Amino acid sequence: MFVLVLGAGRVGERVARFAMAQGHTVSVLDEDPLALDRLDAGVEDGWESAGGRFAVGTALEAAALEAAGIAEADLFIASTNGDNTNIVMAQVAKERYGVEKVLCRVADPARAEWYESQGLNVICGTRIAISLFENELRA
Amino acid sequence: MFMVIAGGGKVGLNLARELLEKGHELSLIEQWRQRYIRLERELEHVAQYGDATELWVLERAGVARADMVIAVTGDDEDNILICQVAKQKYGVERIIARCNNPRNLEHFKLLGIEPAVSATDLILNLIEHSLPGHGLVRLLDLSGDQLEIIEVEVHAGAPADGKRVAEVELPEGSRVISLLPRDACGFVPKDSSLIRAGDEVLVILDPGLEDAVMSQFTVDRRANV
User: Are B11 and B109 within one domain?
Assistant: First the structure.
């Protein structure tokens, strides 16, 4: 499977590495060239020599997405730390490039709930943290 | 009308001033504390503090009863999201979005965020307009109403060169609305007005007819764009 990860921060970096370890072809797009260092750090010989792809660019610009290989992507993971970037890019991946599976990280539970109801595949870390706290409180 | 403006920078503030003067009711949302304090001093209760992409901030600003939402922050993703939520979640009928980077314009369109206004594009159009031998210049794009107005310079030897307005073979859904001869003032032409090479013509048309219209006025479009 070809996996395109948007945003190699604390979440994206780990997910990208995991996907590679699972044997997938992984391409990462980040606006910060330093993100490649973060990817390199966890991989022997470095990210790119291990077969990983990396492109620098702002996601909303079509040229950057295309350089990162969105046309071939089977799975698009929007994992930047910006909810709005993730929500917009997830829709672009789905509607413009017809990516089969699209996952979208959203921190704000209110936006997560609304976009979920609109058919977006949302992963909301905040919601998970809240329910863990609530479980502890119930105990 | 009641309008919600997201983003209290130069564009948002000046819009708010003009609209208030025209008697409209407004909420102006700004997320930077310092800027909000300045806005509040001038506009009082019209200014609202918060991130306009947060649903509760929009709700507090009155989005549910807004006649129009105008998203003019400096961030294109934010402007898209604000307009999308306003339209789809709160049923706001009219939206206007600012597009900061014209390369993002296609994504505004893809997600149904129209009209999207790009100052860079407007200035680019004006620059093209002042260049000699320019090709097509889009003067007005009312894609919501399925209409646009373009300006084009007539090439020597083009099908329309030397013809009268009524004789030009324009596709259905397009019409010459103005003639701007090289050395005279522009005017609204009659069917019998003569079109000559070097004139500029303004044409109103349904989107998608550009190529068919251009082929009447130009010889080889690519050579001039």
Answer: yes
The model's pLDDT over B184-221, given as tens digits with 9 standing for 90+, comes to 888 899 899 999 998 989 999 998 888 899 899 988 64
Q: Do B104 and A60 touch (CB under 8 A)?
A: yes
Torsion of CA B142, B148, B153, B157, to 10 degrees: 160
Q: What is the pLDDT of residues B128-145, one digit of tens each?
A: 777 765 677 777 777 667
- Any chain A CB within 8 A of the CB of B99? no
Residue-range domain boundaries for chain A: 2-138
Q: What is the pTM of this model?
A: 0.81
Last residue within a domain, chosen from B53, B85, B118:
B118
Select from B78, B106, B4 the least CA-distant residue to B48.
B4
| Final residue of a structural domain among B96, B118, B140 | B118
Longest distance between any two alpha carbons in chain A, whole Å:
51
Q: Tell me if B113 sits within 8 A of B175, measured CB to CB.
A: no
| CATH assignment of A2-138, among 1.10.10.200, 3.40.50.2300, 3.40.50.720, 3.90.25.10 | 3.40.50.720
> Is residue B79 scored above 70 in pLDDT?
yes
Considering only CB atoms, B77 lies closest to which of A62, A84, A111, namely A84
Q: Residue type for B108, please?
A: F
Which residues numbered 8-37 in A keep a CB inside 8 Å of some CB on B? none
In chain A, which residue's Cα lies nearest the Cα of B82? A84
User: What are A31-58's pLDDT values in tens digits?
Assistant: 999 999 999 987 888 999 999 999 999 8
ipTM of the complex: 0.90
CB contact under 8 A, B103 and A62: yes
Task: Determine contact: B103 vs chain A, CB below 8 A.
Answer: yes
